Amino acid sequence: MLDVTKRTMRVQNHAYTEEDLVKGLQEGSGEMIRFIYKKNMAAITHLVNRFPHIIPETEDVIQEGMTRLIMNIRDGKFSGKSSVHTYLYSICRNICLKENERWMRDKRVAEEDTYARNPLGVETGAIEMEDEDGYFDQIKLVMKAKKQIGEICVEIIDARFGLSDAGYSPSLSGEGARGRGSRLIPFEEIAEGLGISHDNARQRFKRCMDKLIHIVQVAQNQMT
Amino acid sequence: MKSDETDIDLIERFLDGALNEPELTDFYHRMETDPDFAGLVELRKKLPDLWRKADQYQEVRTEVNRSLKMPTPQGIFQLHSLFFSSQQHIFHLHPAVFAIAASVVILFGIAVALILGTGGGSGRNDDNQAIIRQGDSMLQLKTDRPDVKAMLDTLTEDSVTNLRLLKPPDSGKFNYIDTNTFQWIIVP
Questions:
Q1: What's the rounded Cα separation, in Å, for the pair A13 and B81?
Q2: Which of A95, B51, B71, B164 has its CA 20 to 30 A from that of B41?
């Protein structure tokens, strides 16, 4: 008779804790990005398939979701109350719901078409909206506007918002470095940094800000 | 849009704290009575943050796309280390340098295996093995890229003469991303 020993072992191919995942995403680890993507792809595909009318493909939704997840983690907006996976799913669900809302608005979907209006069958008010005020939509609008206003405008706006060295006089460089991007730079400093007159700096900024605000407002109006 | 331009200038002076008392009073009054002006002020206040975040968004989106869409040699290696979680390697080499180095190492390995006749032609790669320990026994699983296959390789207990992999089945494919339960029987 054979003496048979039966053994079982559970092999954790990816012993990632929540902390590992958050740290990895904070540091931009490609390994973590791929891991979270693969882990959630099936669930998010299933989710997106429940919204037959929305334009973005699953791939777009999950990439947008991953981008928002990473930005929220880096901004300290992810509290850790839910798992990273649940949080990503929630972000993707919100993206789908918002896209569905846009589709309903464009198509003027009837009130009684409850399935089309809410394919998930959930109380949308109860959904945790990580992007309630359309923050990411606004970011994307500004991103597009930035490409349209030209380099000269980007330069002066960067300087005014404290995001370039142009706005720092040597005497303020230490303070400037600490408060980079968190304070408005006076036009006197900008003028000095760019080698132009104070009035010129102010006028150029005003023209550029006007362009930027105009582009953003037009796009906002088209969305609503 | 002359009036808007004036408003923008006014808002800039407000943000710089450069409005005098009457101007400030007028500014707050307009904020309460003119929704367009109030909306413009709110947007202007948000813009520095949105402006910064627009760059950040672009960078993160590129980071995500690059990680998901471009199977660089570095990326492949990271997938490998994902499977072998005990072997975490971080490389800071340029992908092209890494690719050349990897090609040289692989070619050298194949050449040595062919010369020594140790089965180099079968595609075996010692780096490509998972080692699972339990008690005194050691089970090595071979994996073949791009698929991960469960294949019994060696067992370091002399007393054991036969061993059969039950789960996943011998040579069966499994997803490296999932937690896998390996099951085998040992026949002494």
A1: 10
A2: A95
Q: Among B69, B95, B114, where does a domain finish?
A: B69
List of residues 6+ apart from B94 with CB closer than 8 A:
none
Q: In CATH, what is the architecture of A18-132?
A: Orthogonal Bundle (1.10)
Predicted ipTM > 0.85: no
Contacts of A188 (CB under 8 A, 6+ apart): A198
Cβ burial A116-136 (10 Å sphere, 16+ → b, else e): beebeeeeeeeeebbbeeebb
A202 CB-contact burial (10 Å; exposed 0-12 / middle 13-18 / buried 19+):
buried
Structure tokens at B128: 């490509």
**Nearest residue in A to B185, CA atom:** A6
Which residues in B lie closer than 8 A to residue A143 (C-beta atoms)?
54-55, 57-58
List all residues of chain A from 24 to 43 with a beta carbon under 8 Å from chain B: 28, 30-31, 33-35, 37-39
